[in-house]
Task: structure prediction
Amino acid sequence: MMVGTSDQIRRVGITYEHTKFLCCTPYLVGVGACNSTHVNQLAFPKDMDPYQSNGTFYYFPIEYGMVSDTEAQGSIGPYRINITTHSIWYMLVVNCNDDKDKTSTTVRLRGTSVWVNPFGYLPGQLYGQLPVYWTLTILYFVFFISWMISSCCYRHSLHPIQYAMLLVLAVSFLENMLWGSVFVRYNLTGTNDNIWNGFGTFFLATKLTISRTMLLLVCMGYSITNSEIPRQQQYSVLGLSLCYFIIVAANHFATVLQDHGDQISYASKMLLVFLDAIVSATMFIWIFASLDSTRDELLKKQQYVKRRMYNILAVCMGIAVGLSSIIFIGEFIIQMLSLEDKVWLGEFFFTLYWEFAFFFILVAVAIIWRPHRDNYRYAHVEQDGEGSIDTVAQQSNEMEMTTIGNSNPDSPLAAVVEKKP
Result:
């Protein structure tokens, strides 16, 4: 058994004919790749004495004694290692018996390894996420209370977006508080319960699904430029949202399990990442296509107040997408080049960015569609008479502009503006 930094772990073994062997096998001895005195032992490079640790690795050979004619038993430890080198550390346990030898045995391990950092049980890569979640918990709580107070003050004729925003903020607050509590518990006790991880994943997937479905409906102009959307599109939105929830929840739960040391097969993880990329790309392509179509429709109808709202939303989303593309490419390069062990101190930055990017978009939507004394400015209104479609927002804006330009407070127009609902 060996405990060492990522750099030292990589050095262990012998590369022969483009294949990495961790042990010095009889075959490698026969071809001269290692010394016969080290047969069926962990292979170390010549400049690395396993019994002369320099604080970056520790080697513990396990010796077995026969307890019966067919069973051998060995033990190791208990050992306590005081690690002082900042790095990603691994524990490598290798059975160097020749698997082609009919007398070789299967090794079963039983025991516990406990890793504790100076600040607690949380791994270094995850510790930086702890303040992120509690900061977001406070921000979402303040945001939720402010939105609820504003909605109560302007409770007459609230728009569906404003109700949906209330739900998103409540779920976001619960999600971040749950993750923060799970991380505190893990850091203090060293126990990680997958039941609570499951609840956190559920709230995360719910938050993302509701918010992005809400954003899609906003960009489609539902209840803003159109009183309803066709039934076929309703089914499409519902189906896409359901698929998005299931795939995002499964992918994130697998990621959480990996972060806490559980084994997920490479094929399963890649399949989940691929499906997540497909469903997310479909969602965002539809969002941007609908946003562009709605802006064009508002321009044709000369509804400039609403179009200005959509223009602000488009700019905010464009900034977020541009930055997200850069972050995504950087994260992809790190994974492809296997640089995680080199940049582990800054790994929390990716969680920090994606969480705050979501928060930024949510704030942008909240500012644009905030509760207002005239909530009708958001709404689609069918005009009587010729059947043309217009908005109260346009009428209200024109009246306010006329009032500002009229310096005579006794004018008939000013009296009309004062009586407007």
